[in-house]
Amino acid sequence: MFLVVTTLAMLVLVVFVSAVHGYRSGMAEAERLFDSQLQEQAHLATGVASEQLATLDKVANIAFQHWRLAPGQPARLLAHTGNIPATALIALEPGFGHANFSGYRWRTYVHFAGRDDVVVVAAARTDIRYRLADNVIIEAITPVVLWLPLSGLLVWFVVGRGLRPLGQLAEQLHGKQFRELSAVALDRCPAELETVVDSVNRLLERLREAFEREKRFVADAAHELRTPIAVLRVQVHNFRERLPEHAAELRALEAAVERMQHLVEQILTLHRLSPEQLHGRFAALDLHALAQTVIAACYDAIEARRQHVELVADTGATERRALVAADRFALETLVRNLLDNAVKYTPEGGNIRVGVSCGPGEVVLDVEDDGPGIVPAARERVFERFHRVGGDAHASGVSGCGLGLAIVRNIAELHGARIELGDSRFASGARFTVVFRRLGAIGV
Amino acid sequence: MLLTTVVLVLREMLEAALIVSVLLAWSVLHVRSRRWIGAALAAGIAGAAVYAVNAATVSEWFDYVGMEVVNAAMQFAVCAVLLALAARPTARAATWPMLIAVALAVVREGFEILLYLSGFIADRGAWSTVALGSALGAGIGISAGALLFYLVVGLPRARALRLAQVLIALFAGNMAAQGVLLLIQADWIPGGVQVWNTGDVLAEDSVLGQLLYALVGYEATPSIWQVTAYVAMFCLLFGLFLRRSTPADGDGSGR
Amino acid sequence: MRTVLVILGSLCCATAALAGPPEVQLEIRDHLFFPAELVVPANTKVRLLVINADPTAEEFESYELNREKIIPGGRKAVIFIGPLAPGEYPFFGEFFPKTAQGKVIAK
């Protein structure tokens, strides 16, 4: 915008000022031309007999007077054309001047003939002179002005085109999906931008490698830990059978190993959900049915804490199915983690409510509990990896690895869904809301 | 006729365009909405049309000096709203002074262009020339305004603000001096002595003279009262800016 | 400030009514000034009554006199000029400057 406007303004300024300048010098030149013409006519008129002069008035835009100068007497008018009054209009001094008569302004020239003391006054109408000159010069200037809008369009087009690769680059960078670090490519890369694009691509490449390394390292480590942990668990179990007198210590040890195993499983889940692996497996899933399955699978744990769980479906008046495009494993993990979270933080005998509803173009999953809830200041951080509300000294005394909600957010992002965290409808407690895009075309 | 049209349209256009662009830059520098400019221009053009239609009547007020009085009142009104702007430059309501100042400037300058153009309604043969002249004049005027706008906006913020303040104070001084001149012309205040005569050095009708007239209100033969009004208004406004802008700038950099 | 000006203005009007500066007439016809040369007394304020006989508006303008005033078509207007030092002060009609030319001669 800045570039287009300033370029255009400069262009207009230069072209128009030079057009006006051209007009002025053209006018001055025309004036000189007309003046010398008037001078010539005055010279010619000297030879015209006084009687003939009176008949010359058909030439409306030129007027003549013949005067005779006699020393010591006032000047006497000998003859004049019909379009000029028979009075003295200007001082009889040789040279150019101006006079107003017959309703016009005239350019005058006084010529001393040098014989018989005759003085010729020639006058030409200025309006006609200006109109003639005007017409000629305007013919020359008009195209310049008329072509200007076209050159304006050209400037706009050229600047716009010249800047398009930049806009494209910005758009590509802006549109980069989460963890999507493929190289940017422009349709047509001007030399000025080549370095920028190269640097950006090198940077993206390094970033991707770093991510890749980190991911592989963590996944490998987790994978490598799986077997020893499984072995450890079996060994602890065996020890407990064999050494009943140490049952209490060994149960604590077993719980710790179990927690470690859970952590490793979660880490593996987190890293298994890379976009490349996921997108190919998307299918149309009914979120309501899926939530039912997950609740059924978790029922033992809920029962153990004597909690009350309900699944409420509000699919609207049109009986639409809550269909979303998702990977089954990922979506199950999301619902399970949210449910696990609710179970974990709701006191024994508490309430959990899972809601699936259909809004316009979206499917909303709510998981609410009547646990302690999460204060607004802490809400942003709960989705961070290894973050636990209140640190390890958790009020509920519940153990966890702090990865569950990070996985939830990860899955939501991979499905283009957004997560909101608020207060539940119970007296206390948190509400997690995941809003998916509704799959409208299928199954309606 | 072409040159006449160009000079006339350009003179009026340039004056209005410079005020518009500086006030627009001012609102950009204070990160405020620019939407008021549309309303101000529309109001100004409508006002100019109303004034042009009633020019004959207004002209005969106050014993045939009505136009001087009305124009002077408009100039002083612009001064007043610019003072209001300077007194509270960062206030939310600062859009109003800018809107009024631009609208009045457009009325004042647009009215003259409209009266001039109305003389050619009957003269079909002159239309193309007058249209060409108007296009040239308006093109140059608007381009100059646009360049000034980007010049001010493109500077570092502190310097841009200072430049805008100086320009606004200059415009206000110019307005006050013009208002005083109009009242002298109407014989409402005495003429006073001529302070200087620089007509030989820099004629008012030269290109540079015209540009300086539009930008800083250059006069080749000013009266003592014009100079007094100019200097007083400039100092008053600039003083207000200086007093007001120091805490406002500190506040701005702190954010 | 404006009140002060108005008071000053009315004072001047009062004095003007008493003394009454000499009046000079100038007519605009066919985009020409009649008379094209106005003779006014030097060092005196003069009330210039401009009668625009044309149907179109005209702007009386003079850089030397420092005056600028629009006269709508078919109307009269008053311009106060001076006091002027003896000399010539050209003026022109800004709307039709090719034809509307004239000068004030202060004697």
Question: What attributes characterize this protein structure?
Answer:
heterotrimer, A: 444 residues, alpha+beta, Beta-Lactamase, Helix Hairpins, Heat Shock Protein 90, 3 domains, five-stranded antiparallel sheet, five-stranded mixed sheet, 9 helices, 12 strands, 18% strand, C: 107 residues, Immunoglobulin-like, four-stranded mixed sheet, 1 helix, globular, disordered N terminus
CA-based gyration radius of chain C: 14 Å
Indicate the CATH class of chain C: Mainly Beta
Largest sheet of chain A: 5 strands, antiparallel
The count of β-strands of chain C is 9
Largest interface: B-C, 40 and 42 residues
Rg on CA atoms of chain A, Å? 49 Å
Calculate the mean pLDDT score of chain C and round it: 83
Query: Going across the major beta sheet of chain C, what is the strand order?
Result: 3-9-8-5-6
Q: How many beta strands in the DSSP annotation of chain A? A: 12
Uncertain regions of chain C: pLDDT < 50 for 5+ in a row? 1-18
The CATH topology of chain C is given as: Immunoglobulin-like
Helical region count of chain A? 9
Q: Looking at this structure, what is the CATH superfamily of the largest domain in chain A?
A: Histidine kinase-like ATPase, C-terminal domain
Global morphology of chain C: globular
Gross morphology of chain A is: rod-shaped
Sheet with the most strands of chain C? 5 strands, mixed
Strand portion of chain C: over 45%
